[in-house]
What we know:
By secondary structure, the chain is an alpha+beta fold. It folds into 3 domains: 3-156 and 175-183, no CATH class; 215-364 and 371-380, no CATH class; 404-616, Transferase(Phosphotransferase), domain 1 (Orthogonal Bundle), CATH 1.10.510. The protein is built from 22 helices and 20 strands. Strands 1, 2, 3, 4, 5, 6, 7, 11 and 12 form a 9-stranded antiparallel beta sheet that branches. Strands 10-16-15-13 form a 4-stranded mixed beta sheet. Helix 18 links the parallel strand 17 and strand 18 (521-522). Helix 2 packs antiparallel against helix 5 (104-114) and helix 16 (427-436) crosses helix 17. The longest helix is centred in the first third of the chain and has 36 residues, at 120-155. The chain is globular and about 70 Å long. It starts with a helix and ends in an 8-residue tail after the last strand.
Amino acid sequence: MGNRKFRAIAKGNRDFTAGTSVFLERASRLERAWISDLRQCLVGGGSFDSGDFLDELPAARERAVERLMYSLYLEGIVESPGFEWHRRENLSELIRSSGAPGHPAALIAWVAAQSGLVSGEEWLAFSARVANHYINDALATGYRKSWSRNLKSAAAGRWQDSFLDYLAGLAESGEELLFQEQWAAIGHPFHPLAKAKVDLKPAEVLAYAPDFRSQVRLQWLALHKDRAQVELCEGIDDYPDWVSGLFPLLMHRWRTELSAQGCEPEAFVPLPAHPWQIANRIRERFSGLIANQSLVLLGNATSRYSPLMSFRTLSSASDPRQPDIKLPIDILLTSVHRTISPRTCQMSPRIGALLRKLFETVPALSAHLRLQPEICGVHYQAARGAEAEKQLAAVFRQPLAAVRRPGECFVPCAALLAEAPFGGKPLIVELIERCCGAVSREGVRRFFADYLRRLLPGLLRLYLVYGIALEAHHQNTVLVLDRGHRINGFLLRDLGGIRLHWPSVKSAGLFLQLHDDRLTVCDDREPVRHKFVAALLFFHIGQLVAHLQRTTGTPSELLWRELLIALKWCLDELKPEVPSELWAEERRELLEKDWQAKALMRMNLDSGLADPYISVRNPLRDLG
């Protein structure tokens, strides 16, 4: 499908015109319904009103078109001879010259008329999800502008010239990471459904999404021990005792209320649950368990938590010494319903324990990398079938305070892609100024080289020597800054997306008890490499290159050359520790052969594609 066809069909194809009207009308109905619902839930005033949302809606549609076109080009659904994924600077011009429809629904209608990828009904359903995305994008962007005005006012006279100094002030009380998790919750940089929350009403989005500084009152349920499966890391001997030590007042209320309902507290385990999940899934799906008191809903045992970028992972709103909690929320966020499998509950603490021991014994891993591992998982154990088990579960992650050192400031790498609320410059630009003196071409190069020197060696060692690929994209990786705002290293978290090459793990003498669902482990090296390349090289580093090019004007080729230098150096350092044939093969895969990227649009169109990858051009291939 070449660019000429966009213009030809848009001008004269009657079938295209008729089909487009259906797609546009569906999107228009969704917009009208959202506007009506939003106005109702905002009755009573506040710092945000529906006017902010309406002002942002046209720009959100334009951003949705750009996301769609990027995915269509990247995944080969639409041909474009001039498209190069690693040179994002020419994307806007390609879209303008393509003649593509300027409304997301019209664009999808055109693709549906030409592509046999899925049925017309499936394209129409996809278009509705895209509409949900850009509506939520407009809502979040409008709120962020209102929030920004308030931040500027609060910072006047103290931090108005430096967002970095403002974050350092928050770091003194350990609040800077949670602030950025919510401020920078802008979503995946090119996912066509980055902000989609298909199952939520406007009031629920405002109440539960991180974009709106929400705090969620988690309710602690009581699940009978006979129905509970608990996985603990080393150092935690008894789950109820551990929870009681973390939340003594809460657990006192939990026991008191449980006893008042005629239940013996010692026969149950505490299980946190999201209020949306309770109201929309648990009450109905577990009505039998509730009726026979195998599951007891308690009203007074609650704790305040704030959603992080991932929406279903929450952090204590009052005490950074408490563990983060990941909960199932069975709504369609981006590509999938966000439940938690028994495999995740059991394997996450086991993998965390494995990596902690590895980092303790291999100084080269812990030189610039740290872990914030999962330490406990608990889920409902069904008599048969695992679907219900995914709805009632929790995974606990080590608290941030346990890995923080004095004077440090944490910045989620995703926040580097977000606009700063004040100071007049993106956060990454201010970081470059602090670290390198000026945002010159040389200054940007030095900053990027320093970033790579701390990020790549440990992750490449994990992959090449031990066969372990972490899903080290921006949301799972946190930049650690010292008192002088220089890069100290990186914090790695959310180990659920890890892939392990089982023969390499065993040959390294590492022990890991496996779950029957072996999705985490692979006997073939290729899927592990795909995870490493797609998450780290294509996504994390690739999007950082694009952002630096866009915000500083630095040629992307200069930055890709720095990556080539860094990878070659890492590979040479690891050569004595890797079998020669494997080292040579992996060097070719990383430096010369095509890379892999997740086919996000295809994955959304075809639910049978669980983890689809496509080949993309390796930007290092022709750099020498």
